[in-house]
Amino acid sequence: MMDTPANAVQDIAQDIVQDILDLDSTVQHRLRDSWPEAWLEINLPVGSTRALLAIESRHAHTPGRVAEALGVSRTTVTGLLDRLENEGLLTRAIDPHDRRCFRLALTPKGRDLITQFESHRRTQLAQALVTLAPADLAALRTGLTALVAGL
């Protein structure tokens, strides 16, 4: 069976997508390799950190929404939220509109931790970007602009 031009284009697109996914993984690994020691010493399990990020970035303000965002059970989330609350990173309060539910909110300490993560990530990225040629920077901006539109 002979490939049609449309199939050939689709195969090329799939190859490019796979290359982009592989490059993204490499970028993420290299960024993590240079995380400051203070980050590595944060006494939070990965699940708790993911819960904190879900609360902040996905506006998961209830235990059920956090469980959904992380793809885990509500029972699992309860332990994660207990840990974050004990660390002083979040608060739980009864929802005034539905007293059966809790509302979650980051504390100033929790927001500061997220801000530190984001600030360090942006600094790392900026340091890498300034090493690129102007034409490569322009191409990257065009590609990222298209990706943002696609998201």
Structural overview:
By secondary structure, the protein is mostly helical. It has a single domain (37-150), classed as Arc Repressor Mutant, subunit A (Orthogonal Bundle), CATH 1.10.10.10. Helices cover 70% and strands 10% of the residues. It has seven helices and two strands, in the order αααααββαα. It has helices at 5-33, 37-40, 46-57, 63-70, 74-86, 108-129, 134-150, and strands spanning 90-95, 98-106. It has a two-stranded antiparallel sheet with strand order 1-2. Helix 3 (46-57) packs across helix 5 (74-86). The protein is extended and about 60 Å long. The two termini are 36 Å apart. 12% of the residues are buried. The mean pLDDT is 84.
Short précis:
The chain has one domain: Winged helix-like DNA-binding domain superfamily/Winged helix DNA-binding domain (Arc Repressor Mutant, subunit A, Orthogonal Bundle). The protein is built from seven helices and two strands, in the order H-H-H-H-H-E-E-H-H. The chain has helices at 5-33, 37-40, 46-57, 63-70, 74-86, 108-129, 134-150, and strands spanning 90-95, 98-106.
Q: What layout of secondary structure does this protein have?
A:
Elements: H1 5-33, H2 37-40, H3 46-57, H4 63-70, H5 74-86, E1 90-95, E2 98-106, H6 108-129, H7 134-150
Antiparallel strand pairs: 1-2
Helix pairs in contact: 3-4, 3-5, 4-5
